[in-house]
Amino acid sequence: MLGPVILAASRSDRMRRLVSAAPVTKPVVDRFIPGETVDRIVPIVRDLTDQGLELTMDVVGEDITTPAQAEAARDAYLELIDRLKPLELGTRAEMSVKLSMFGQALDGGHELALANVRPVVEAAAEIGTTVTLDAEDHTTLDSMFAIHEELRKDFPQTGCVIQAYLFRTEADARRLADSGSRVRLVKGAYKEPAEVAYQQRHEIDKAYVRILRTLMEGEGYPMIGSHDPRLISIGQELARTAGRKLDEYEFQMLYGIRGDEHLRLAAEGHRMRVYTAYGTDWYGYFMRRLAEKPANLRFFARSMVSKG
Questions:
Q1: Active-site residue among 92, 184, 271, 289?
Q2: Which residues fall within 8 angstroms of residue 250, CB to CB, at 6 or more apart?
Q3: For residue range 86-145, what is the model confidence (pLDDT) as tens digits?
Q4: Smallest Cα–Cα separation from 144: which of 154, 128, 127, 131?
Q5: Where does the pLDDT of residue 42 fall: very low under 50, low under 70, confident under 90, or very high at 90 and above?
Q6: Does 184 participate in catalysis according to the annotation?
Q7: What pLDDT score does 83 carry?
Q8: How far is CA 209 from the centre of its chain?
Q9: Of these residues, 58, 134, 172, 205, which one is catalytic?
Q10: Distance CA 193, CA 199 (A)
């Protein structure tokens, strides 16, 4: 039950200061976030793609309080896309964006986020790739889905993320599968109330399988966002049952977690995309990685003991 506690800490300024100041933090953060600048991340992109992996790139940062910060987030993605252009990777390197970074929570946030994300989607299309809209807490989803639908009018490959632990997601999955969308399915990494989300792991896992079956049987492109060996095996079986070829779905995992599995799946011919985050505002992202899996928290705790 530590997950909810850690998620609460991810919103605490006091915990942010404590964790950021701990000497052990940076080496552990580097496991999940391999760089803070574009200069640092581009060689990593080149190395991972040379190994047969694909990437989705996330510039970390969510606590946007001014329109100027939202514009800076937009410009950070535009800089990334500009730096990726000479690599000619196409869809092997796409972008993941959180609309909160583009001003979604500010006054007039829906229109502001759409105005800021559209140039990123346009620039991605110009270098032959695309953008996926990350899901955040349940209060933001209606806006996210509306922006997704609007962007797909001109850029139909724009993807979105759905979260298995939310009660609403089975209906969202049916709608998205029917529309032919690119959809990443994850378990969910935000603290949500019992009124809107499953709280028990076995309930979330069962919902994940039901939703993944819907996506596999639909008209879209499923992206299996999980490190769970059982769910990965189930995903492969559902794809076979649905008659999907290896290039008609993909697996996605986080940078720094189960790297050997990334390479194994790619060697078997699967599309394996690594969610690779970078940037200086890493705290919220890092804390959710700890909350998602007890092994991540144990890794951090062991490092604190050994380095302390």
A1: 184
A2: 54, 221, 222, 223, 224, 270, 271, 272, 273
A3: 999 999 999 999 999 999 999 999 999 999 999 999 999 999 999 999 999 999 999 999
A4: 131
A5: very high
A6: yes
A7: 97
A8: 19
A9: 134
A10: 8
Amino acid identity for residue 226 in this structure: S
Query: What is each CA distance from 274 to 39, 92, 102, 247, 260, in whole angstroms?
Result: 19, 10, 23, 16, 12
DSSP three-state, residue 120? helix
CB atoms closer than 10 angstroms to residue 66? 10
pLDDT of residue 300: 47
Structure tokens at 219: 């008209």
The three-class DSSP label of residue 156 is: coil
Distance, CA of 160 to CA of 158 (rounded, Å) = 7
| Beta partners for residue 57, in sequence order | 95, 276
158 is written with which tokens? 């724009």
Tokens 């599995």, located at residue: 261
**Model's pTM, two decimal places?**
0.86
The span from the CA of 136 to the CA of 141, in Å, is 7
Mean pLDDT score, 189-209: 95
Q: Strand locations in the chain, DSSP E? A: 54-59, 93-97, 131-133, 159-163, 182-186, 221-225, 250-254, 272-278
At CA 302, angle to CA 300 and CA 307, rounded to 5? Answer: 95
Residue whose C-alpha is closest to residue 87's, from 120, 131, 122, 42: 42
Active site residue 134: yes
Q: Which amino acid is at 199?
A: Q
H-state helical runs in 163-293: 169-179, 201-217, 229-241, 259-267, 283-292
